[in-house]
Design brief:
Blueprint: H1 3-39, E1 42-45, H2 47-57, H3 59-78, E2 85-89, E3 110-119, H4 121-188, H5 195-228, E4 236-239, H6 253-263, H7 265-285, E5 291-300, H8 303-306, E6 316-325, H9 333-399, H10 405-440, H11 443-447
Parallel strand pairs: 1-4
Antiparallel strand pairs: 2-3, 3-5, 5-6
Length: about 450
């Protein structure tokens, strides 16, 4: 008995010793969070505005556009042999013996020459392949835009649903606080057992914890939405309610599957790759064809250099003609590259079949998920309507003095929970609808 008070005193001292640093740490964290919140910028946006911003500023879309610009520049690179190039130059050197030049041509004061490819089948197929690669890059921009729109809409709906749930939980906390005060009075008056205070305290603590956790999730969701839209990670996007109608989806599952295969960006991109690979194959097959170039040259001679060796010197000299090169032995590289390209074509065909099967199955599943979500949403709505009517009935009975106040409070708390369940079911249905639109390739058109 004598040691127990001493042990309690030590525990109190130890508790006091460790409590002060915790308070300091908590205040520091709150100060840092408050400072960060003050520096962050909040962007209130509707869903349509968020999608439009994402299409302009989303990093993945911006990178895809840069890839498209690079592919377009590749067309100009591939066309380079078919554009004339003119070079002019001059120089000076000491000559011993017969006049000559390092390049093998007759020495001149000024020399200009040009070349232009007239016929080169492999190079022509390279141009066609570059154009097809540019078309594939444009398809990639469409695909990234569609994906950015889906990410934006999904993050927007997540943040919106969390905001509604936070508001419902705030009302629930306020209701529990009122119930707690009323219960304390009834316990003091002897109309309730003291254990009811503990039961309400547990419910209140649990609801407050849910409220705080969901507040943190809401902040993270708004920050994630800001990053998707191209804003800094410190900014927040606040979703605004708008009078948008649910986007229309295909009436049947088979119609959705057919539309998904028809509009698939993945399949179109693979088809573009297959087309580009076909031009590459043709280029390897054309490796034995002759190459015809247009050549021209002009030289301005110095007569003093040639008078010792020639009796008649023409100062202005020009050549214009055609150069024809016929490959006789092209080596083994062309055959090896041809085999590799044929293997790539086979792989692309397998990937296309695999992609079609995956898209078909994914669309089928997303359509079925939507139907299940619609059913769950209808059940949640009926459950909410029942809870609301139950509160109305109990309020009428309370006014007549037929039931205690506690039953009304419990019914109101149950109604708040039903509201949260209804928001969750509604959110699930909206995201399932988005997924169907994403699979069918009509999401971007529906959100604009």
């Amino acid at each position: 008995m004598l040691h127990r008070p001493q042990r309690e005193t030590r525990n109190e001292k130890r508790e006091t010793f460790f409590r002060y640093p915790k308070k300091v740490t908590k205040l520091t964290v709150l100060f840092v969070l408050a400072t960060s919140a003050a520096l962050a910028e909040v962007h209130p946006l509707s869903l349509r505005q968020a999608v439009e911003t994402a299409l302009k500023e989303n990093p993945d879309v911006v990178l895809a556009r840069l890839d498209e610009q690079r592919a377009q520049a590749g067309i100009r690179v591939a066309k380079d042999p078919f554009f004339p190039k003119v070079f002019a130059g001059s120089g000076d050197a000491k000559t011993w013996g017969y006049p000559g030049s390092i390049e093998g041509a007759a020495p001149a004061i000024v020399q200009t020459h040009t070349d232009l490819t007239l016929f080169n089948r492999p190079k022509s197929y390279e141009v066609s392949r570059a154009k097809e690669n540019a078309r594939g890059a444009a398809i990639g921009v469409e695909s990234k835009s569609e994906e950015a729109a889906y990410q934006t809409a999904a993050a927007f709906l997540d943040a919106q649903q969390m905001l509604r749930s936070v508001q419902s939980l705030r009302l629930e906390v306020e209701s529990l606080e009122r119930v707690s005060e009323a219960t304390k009075l009834r316990v003091e008056e002897g109309r309730e057992l003291p254990i009811e205070n503990k039961r309400i305290a547990v419910d209140l603590a649990r609801t407050r914890q849910r409220f705080e956790n969901l507040n943190g999730d809401l902040d993270y969701s708004q920050a994630s939405l800001a990053v998707v839209l191209g804003y800094p990670a410190g900014d927040r996007v606040q979703p605004l309610d708008d009078d948008r109608k649910p986007p229309e989806i295909p009436e049947t599952e088979q119609a959705a599957r057919d539309l998904a295969l028809q509009n698939s960006h993945e399949i179109r991109r693979l088809e573009s790759e297959l087309q580009a690979k076909g031009f590459e194959l043709r280029g390897y097959h054309a490796a034995r064809l002759p190459v015809v170039d247009l050549v021209a040259q002009y030289s301005l001679f110095d007569k003093g250099i040639y008078q010792t060796y020639f009796t008649h010197i023409q100062r202005n000299n020009g050549q214009l003609g055609v150069s024809v090169q016929v490959p006789l032995l092209i080596g083994s590289a062309s055959k090896g590259l041809l085999t590799q390209a044929e293997t790539d074509v086979l792989q692309l065909r397998v990937r296309m079949n695999q992609m079609r099967n995956r898209i078909d199955l994914d669309t089928q599943k997303s359509y079925q998920d939507l139907k299940r979500a619609e059913g769950a949403n209808e059940v949640a709505k009926l459950d909410l309507d029942y809870a609301r009517e139950q509160v109305s009935v109990l309020l009428a009975q309370l006014g007549e003095g037929r039931i205690p106040r506690q039953r009304v409070d419990d019914a109101r708390l149950n109604e708040q929970e039903k509201w949260i369940a209804f928001y969750d079911a509604q959110h699930t249905e909206e995201k399932a609808r988005l997924n169907v639109l994403r699979q069918t390739g009509t999401l971007l058109a529906s959100l604009r």
